Structures are given as C-alpha cells and as structure tokens.
Amino acid sequence: MARLVRHFVEEPRPCSYLPSVKASLEYRLMVEVSQAELESLLVRGWRRFGPAYFRPSCGTCNACDSLRLDVHRFNPSTSQKRALKRSHRFRVEVGKPRIDAQRLQLHTRWHGTREDARGWEPTQLSEDEYATQFAFPSTTGQEMAWYDGDQLLAIGLIDLTPNAVSAAYFFYDPVIARLSPGVGNVMRCVELARELGRQHVYLGYRVEACASLQYKGLFTPHEVLDGRPSPTQAPHWREVTAVR
Questions:
Q1: Gap between the terminal Cα atoms of the chain
Q2: Between vectors from CA 20 to CA 243 and to CA 121, what angle results, nearest 5°?
Q3: In which band, very low, low, confident or very high, does the pLDDT at 242 lie, cut at 50, 70 and 90?
Q4: Is residue 171 within 8 Å of 110, Cβ to Cβ?
Q5: Could you read off the pLDDT of 169-221 as tens digits, one per residue?
C-alpha cells in the first residue's frame, strides 16, 4: 500500500511549455505504490517521475491534455508503421531500470542535442540523480533498452499497471535520430501492451501550442481526459478520431 511522504502544490512559475503563462503542479511524494494504485492515478491524469507523482494544478490554464491510446482501437499511420519497422532492427530488452556509465553517457549525448536545438538548460546527471529520476525503486518501473549488438542506443522508461503501459521518458543516441525513434518508442509501447494483454498506453500530456508535444496527437484515435477528477470521481475519457 502506498505511503505518502509529502503532498503539496508548488508556487506558480513560468510554464515549461507555454512561457507566457504561469504553471503549477500538484505533487505527491510516495513510496511503495502498487500497480493498481498507480493505475488509479493514471486514469485521473497523474504521472510518475521517480518518487514524485504529479499533475497540473494551474489556476486558469487547461492546455495540458492527458492523452492515452486504446491499443485495440489505435490505427497507426503509414509513417508510424515505418517507424516501428525501423525500430525492429534493434534488440529491445525489457527489465528493471539500471544505472551504469553507458546510460549516463547516452543521456548526456541526447540532452546535449536538446540544449542546442531547444535552448534547454545544460545538465549532466550524476549517478545519484539518474538513480532518483529514472531508477527509483518501484513496483511499476521498467526500462526498454535498445541495443545494436552490445551498443546501447536508446532507453524508454515505462510503468506497467494491470491494464496499461505508461510511457514516462525516452532518450536516445543522436546517431539514430533519422529513424524517428520517438515515434518508434510509442509504437514499441503499443506492441508491448498488446503482448502483455494491457488495454491502454498512456502518453502523458499534450499541449497543442507546444511544438515538441504536438506529435502525441498524431496517434489516432486517442483518448483525452476531461478535467482533473478527484480520487472519488469517476474519470471520463473522450475519444478523438482526427488530428486537431
């Protein structure tokens, strides 16, 4: 059973996706969260990053759409099928998240491309930081590691619950950028969900006005959560069949 360590709402700050508006996240720092408990949070728009479980708590802005795919209804486009096919040239191993020099170096190379292209703040994770963010002990966390021979080329961090695969984070070696690995990662999550008998793949938040998040809406049909339901409210997900 989950143990709540701390619950708070952060002070408003410039939004990471829409800098012209103020944003605020509601946080629950928790340990020993079961798969069923995480699923109850996912269906209400929460996400997990290490020991932090969070969702938007912005006063006037509702631009963050919680988005998921029903893997039985999802109909991939031709380009998405191609990205999946390209991803199959790599061996993918699913297991508990690990920490080693390969993973730290891979994250540094990937993050550097974001710093150059998108103006992200420079960062180089220490082993402890990587452990907290990507390999924090949990009943749900797994990694999908992409290999070409012995060379590690990508890491997808996911959560597994009784009915879903949640895609939490993905980073890759810039040398495979031309293969659309981000799209391939989503498709591999769909593939894994079908293999495991899960119904949904959660893709986190899509903000239509944020270019780096718009790609999530290209996976159709998808479902979008209405509002921010409380633990006692039944969540309502509506289907979107076309790209807006």
A1: 40
A2: 90
A3: confident
A4: yes
A5: 999 999 999 999 999 999 999 999 999 999 999 999 999 888 888 889 999 99
pTM of the model: 0.94
Question: What are the structural domains, with CATH classification, of the chain?
Answer: 64-240 (3.40.630.30)
Instruction: Give dist(CA 98, CA 145) in Å, integer.
Output: 10
Residue 34: burial class (beta carbons within 10 Å; 0-12, 13-18, 19+): middle
pLDDT tens track for 22-68: 999 999 999 999 999 999 999 999 999 999 999 999 988 889 999 99
